[in-house]
Specification:
The complex is a heterodimer. Chain A is α/β, with parallel strands linked by helices. Chain A has 2 domains: about 210 residues, Rossmann fold (3-Layer(aba) Sandwich); about 120 residues, 2-Layer Sandwich (Alpha-Beta Plaits). Helix content of chain A is about 35%, strand content about 25%. Chain A has 14 helices and 14 strands. In chain A, the strands form 3 sheets. Chain A has a 6-stranded mixed beta sheet with strand order 6-7-8-3-9-10, with helices on both faces. Chain A has a 4-stranded antiparallel beta sheet with strand order 2-1-4-5. A 4-stranded antiparallel beta sheet of chain A has the order 12-13-11-14. In chain A, a hairpin with a 2-residue loop joins strand 9 and strand 10. Chain A is elongated. The two termini of chain A are about 35 Å apart. By secondary structure, chain B is an all-alpha fold. Helices cover about 80% and strands about 0% of the residues of chain B. In chain B, helix 6 runs antiparallel to helix 7 and helix 7 packs across helix 8. The radius of gyration of chain B is 20 Å and the shape is globular. Chain B starts with a helix and ends with a helix. At the A-B interface, helix 2 and helix 3 of A face helix 1 and helix 5 of B. The complex binds adenosine-5'-triphosphate (ATP) and magnesium ion (MG).
């Protein structure tokens, strides 16, 4: 339904989207995931024919966005980042206007307006001025206008931004519900949103695709890595040398890397990473005890999608400053996370 | 065609669902009414004086009331045109609704024509008020209607050109005030260019006065359709709309 090849978009100085390629099959619901400024909006604007690409091609519903732009626009419903509402129009009039723009008329249009208002739960504001609606209603009217002409492809730019938790859940349910009839591509920087609503995920960072995979696969990949959290304390009266502990732990067979996660008085918390099944937890415990330290706590931890995302986009440091140590060990920064190494190298 | 109509209807509705249209219409009606009252009053006094000195037969409503009033309406229009066009594209850009228009299956030219025609439509509504005043003349006197009709055609052509220029300027910014002020500046310049021909007859002055929108109105005011003046207005309309189209295109490339 959507095929993107080597799509590139440059603004005056920066390259917002850099040679990205991906494709979306009919009826799929795909999450376009990336941190702020990754190029999500820019890509969506190219797919909807709002911006022409600098180079590369994109086809939507079999039509080229540059050559057959009018056809593409007939088959696409688009919810931009900020809903495109006319402040001085009433909800019903607005939806009628958008419907006419998309080529509908008469009784068919009236029926469809009623239908989408019900579907997006905006019937109770049908005679209100759009300029006076709350953010949540504005977003829902925006969604209603995107689906008014029953398009094959829906492009939704951060459809849940600015909604309260209840509305977020309702909107996600609605999007999931729509997935049967439409091919949907939605952008977000919230990972759980992708986990809950999407089948496929495209992770984009600094204008480049860092990973495309099914959500199921990504979750499996997350489960493929084992992390163990240990709290190690010095023997009574002694001082703990965190770097030394880290050094010792990384020598245990199967351990891929060791991170220092935090310190409490006289003790420190470490996290080891390894591939599933390659590490015996007994080895870790023995290494600590034999070196003369105390093992206060040891527990396995599943790696969340969140962590995978942060690793792939290389923004871990920015997102979790509090767990970073002032004097991080030398190995820590240099070590490439295993996940990322298996995938395409993230841009530093 | 259908799409032009959809955009036109939406713009018209938007003018009349906000105070904009009513304020413009009222202001225009009041100011024009003042001109009318002035002109008719002057005409009546002049008539009385002439009757007293026994020189009858030289009074002509068309020449002495209608023609100067049409001239006034043409200049008055220059002040109202920026207020009509300033919002056309600037508002869409500010609200983000341009993203809806530009991603709908509608050609740029249809959007532009729809908006421009709506602007012309609102201007035509303002002219309707002047028609009410003129109706009095027909009730009490017996003026010739043909020069008046030609005068209206001239007013519409002149406004059409300036409205096209205003539409173009509105695509250049997302700030309505800037669009309005710039359009006003251009309108004013196209008016005052006519003045130079009064004291200067060099090539430059001729060119400047040719560029002025008001000089081309004279013939229409007299009730004559001069093809060179009609061509001038049609050219301004075409160029204005053409540049609007180019600007919309480059909007996509730049934004
Ligand atoms: N009109 C523009 N002119 C110049 N640069 C732009 C323009 N629009 C976006 N950019 C730049 O392009 C890059 C990608 O922006 P984009 O809006 O596509 O990101 P995004 O993934 O949608 O981010 P967000 O999550 O914040 O919405 C950013 O660095 C941004 O500053
Ligand atoms: Mg964005």
């Amino acid at each position: 339904m959507i095929t993107v090849k080597e799509l590139t978009r440059k603004y005056a100085r920066i390259t917002a989207v850099n040679h990205i390629s991906f494709s979306v099959a009919k009826g799929q619901i795909v999450g376009f995931l990336g941190p702020n400024g990754a190029g999500k909006t820019t890509t969506m604007r190219m797919l909807t024919c709002f911006l022409p690409p600098t180079s590369g091609t994109a086809t939507v519903a079999g039509f080229d966005v540059l050559e057959q732009s009018l056809e593409v626009r007939k088959h696409i419903g688009y919810l931009p980042e900020s809903p495109p509402l006319y402040q001085d129009m009433e909800t019903t009039d607005y939806l009628r206007f958008v419907g006419r723009l998309k080529g509908m008329a008469g009784a068919e249009l009236e029926k469809r307006v009623d239908y989408v208002m019900g579907r997006c739960a905006v019937t109770d504001v049908k005679t209100r001025l759009l300029g006076k609606l709350s953010k949540g209603y504005r977003q829902r009217v925006g969604l209603a206008q995107a689906i008014i002409h029953n398009p094959d492809v829906l492009v939704l730019d951060e459809p849940t931004a600015g909604l309260d938790p209840k509305q977020i859940n309702e909107t996600r349910a609605l999007i999931k519900d729509l997935a049967g009839e439409h091919t949907i591509i939605l952008s977000t920087h919230i990972l759980s949103e992708v986990e809950q609503t999407c089948e496929q995920v495209i992770i984009i960072n600094k204008g480049e695709v860092v990973a495309t995979d099914s959500v199921v696969n990504l979750q499996a990949r997350a489960r493929g890595v084992e992390t163990v959290v240990l709290e190690v304390a010095a023997a009574p009266g002694a001082v703990l040398d965190a770097a030394q502990v880290q050094q010792r732990l990384s020598q245990v067979p199967g351990v891929a890397q060791v991170l220092v996660k935090g310190r409490r008085d006289g003790a420190a918390v470490f996290e080891t990473e390894s591939r599933k099944g390659e590490l015996k937890r007994g080895d870790l415990a023995r290494a600590v005890i034999e070196a003369g330290w105390d093992l206060n706590e040891m527990r396995p931890e599943a790696m969340s999608l969140e962590e995978i995302f942060l690793r792939l986009t290389g923004s871990e440091a920015a997102m979790e400053p509090e767990v970073r140590l002032e004097e991080g060990s030398p190995g820590e920064a240099a070590a490439q996370p295993e996940i990322a190494a298996a995938e395409k190298e993230p841009q530093a | 065609m259908r799409n032009i109509w959809i955009i036109f209807a939406k713009e018209m509705k938007s003018y009349f669902s906000s105070p904009v249209a009513y304020i413009l219409l009222t202001m225009f009606a009041v100011i024009f009414g003042f001109f009318f009252w002035n002109m008719v009053g002057f005409f009546v006094i002049q008539g009385a004086e002439m009757m007293a000195s026994g020189q009858m037969g030289q009074m002509n409503v068309n020449e002495q009331v209608i023609r100067p009033l049409l001239g006034n309406a043409s200049v008055l229009g220059l002040f109202f045109i920026p207020m009509i066009t300033m919002r056309l594209f600037a508002e869409e850009k500010r609200n983000g609704t341009i993203e809806l228009l530009a991603t709908s299956p509608v050609r740029d030219i249809e959007i532009i024509l729809g908006k421009w025609l709506a602007a012309v439509g609102l201007y035509a509504c303002m002219l309707l008020f002047t028609a009410i005043s003129f109706a009095f003349l027909f009730h009490y006197g017996n003026p010739d209607w043909k020069p008046l009709a030609v005068g209206y055609l001239g007013l519409l052509l002149q406004a059409g050109g300036l409205l096209a220029v205003g539409t173009f300027i509105s695509t250049l910014t997302r700030n309505q005030i800037i669009a309005g002020a710039a359009t006003f500046g251009v309108c004013l310049m196209l008016w005052v260019f006519a003045w130079v021909s009064g004291y200067d007859s060099s090539t430059w002055a001729t060119v400047l006065s040719y560029l002025s929108v008001v000089t081309h109105f004279d013939s229409f005011g007299k009730g004559l359709i001069e093809s060179k003046d009609a061509v001038y207005y049609l050219t301004v309309i075409f160029l204005g709309l053409f540049f609007t189209a180019r600007s919309m295109e480059s909007l996509r490339w730049r934004s």
